[in-house]
Specification:
With about 375 residues, the protein is an alpha/beta fold. Helices cover about 40% and strands about 15% of the residues. It contains 13 helices and 12 strands. The strands form 3 sheets. Strands 2-8-7-6-5-3-4 form a 7-stranded mixed β-sheet, with helices on both faces. A 3-stranded antiparallel β-sheet has the order 9-10-12, with helices on one face. About 45% of the residues are buried. It binds pyridoxal-5'-phosphate (PLP).
Length: about 375
């Protein structure tokens, strides 16, 4: 049966070039990178080469990149260690962050380690920059600002340069979750100052279970995971050697093809959006139409009898998508992001998210399935038998 995968914000398929590279590395390297013998040394060299590649793409120094198990671990480390080790006593964030940030913030504030404040967001998911400036200006408590580059559910983006400028002006640290934009947007840390930034390979056609934390050399923290001296003493545990090699290769492939992939994904997304608008009644889109992630289209369907089962029906008809984010879609508990934008609504939100592997023909297939599942929403439904 035909299947169309439009859930690329949840995870992506591994690029065939990355698979080939990783298989070669698996055949070539088996040493423990901490061993001093020949097998260990070549494994160590492969990791350091991967680190150099990632650092170069980001305009960072090699020592500022720490490989971790995922974006979640990287965000936990940045938030919890900056409170523990850097004297941060206030964190300013937003209610639309990923759960790995929000739940880390809960655990920080629950034990009273730091005050956590959430900026208001408007109905497009844009954070209130004037409020951010006011809070930074009014209170000189040691502060970390934690704002994601692009929202994983609706795609709304912050202006990294602008938030960075404000943080520098008021002497605050800046952490940004770039899991959804890493390797899809140029990020140059030699031009924009960020204190902590996170990435995860499986979002850019690399393997799962490998991510990294960029930590500016001015704000080095102590390890989040204790044990051996791996990752230059920053993260204990034998390195995920083949994952690290795959992450760097995936970044290389994605960065080299960034512009052409962006053009293709944007065209596919725009075609889908236009067909939805032309052929269905009362379709709305969540997120900022002017400044959003081109990979994501969050669609709000009017309440209808089939609405509750839309995800399920799309799945059994061959279309893979998410309700909110992947983590919440399993439970389908409703999205904290959509709730922050619109409060309670009986409309149904589906996140469609695209990759350069998607085609226009796949979009036609998805539209056909939607017409079958939601006939009452099709414009001129009478003429469709
Ligand atoms: C914005 C954002 N941050 C963090 C994560 C967590 O990344 P990982 O799956 O690597 O733990 C995700 C993944 O869904 C995400 O979309």
């Amino acid at each position: 049966m035909k299947r169309v995968y439009l859930d690329n914000a949840a995870t992506t398929q591994i690029d065939p070039q990355v698979i080939e590279f990783m298989v070669a590395a698996m055949n070539q390297y088996h040493g423990n990178p901490s061993s001093i013998h020949a097998e260990g040394r070549v494994a160590r060299a492969a990791i350091e080469q991967a680190r150099k590649k990632v650092a170069n793409y980001l305009g960072a120094s090699i020592g500022e990149i720490i490989f971790t198990s995922c974006g979640t671990e990287s965000n936990n480390m940045a938030l919890k260690c900056s409170v523990r080790d850097l004297g941060v006593r206030r964190i300013i964030s937003s209610p639309t962050e990923h759960h790995c940030v929000l739940h880390s913030l809960d655990s920080i504030s629950n034990v009273g380690q730091a005050e956590v404040k959430y900026l208001p967001v408007d109905d497009k998911g844009r954070i209130d920059m004037a409020q951010l400036e006011q809070w930074l200006r009014e209170d000189d408590t040691k502060t970390l600002v934690s704002l994601m580059h692009a929202n994983n559910e609706i795609g709304t983006m912050i202006d990294l340069a602008e938030v960075s400028r404000l943080c520098q002006q008021y002497n605050a640290l800046f952490h940004t979750d770039t899991v959804q934009t890493m390797s899809f947007f140029p990020i140059n840390l030699s031009e924009i100052k960020v204190n902590f930034l996170t990435g995860s390979a499986h979002k850019f056609h690399g393997p799962k279970g490998i991510g990294f934390l960029y930590m500016n050399k001015e704000n080095i923290v102590k390890p989040f995971i204790d044990g051996g001296a791996q990752e230059r003493n920053m993260r204990a545990g034998t390195e995920n050697l083949h994952g690290i090699i795959g992450l760097a290769k995936a970044m290389e492939v994605a960065v080299e093809n960034m512009e052409q992939n962006r053009a293709h994904i944007t065209a596919v997304r725009n075609y889908f959006k236009a067909r939805l608008e032309n052929e269905f009644e009362d379709i709305q889109f969540n997120g900022d139409p002017d400044y959003g992630n081109y990979k994501v289209l969050s669609v709000s369907f009017p309440a209808s009898p089939k609405g509750d089962l839309l995800l399920f029906n799309l799945d059994i008809n061959g279309v893979s998508v998410s309700g909110g984010s992947a983590c919440s879609s399993g439970a389908d508990a409703g999205s904290h992001v959509i709730a922050a934008l619109h409060g309670n609504s009986d409309r149904k939100t589906i996140r469609f998210s695209f990759s350069h592997f998607n085609t226009m023909e796949e979009i036609d297939f998805v539209i056909d399935q939607l017409k079958k599942i939601l006939p009452e929403l099709v414009k001129n439904a009478a003429s469709i038998v």
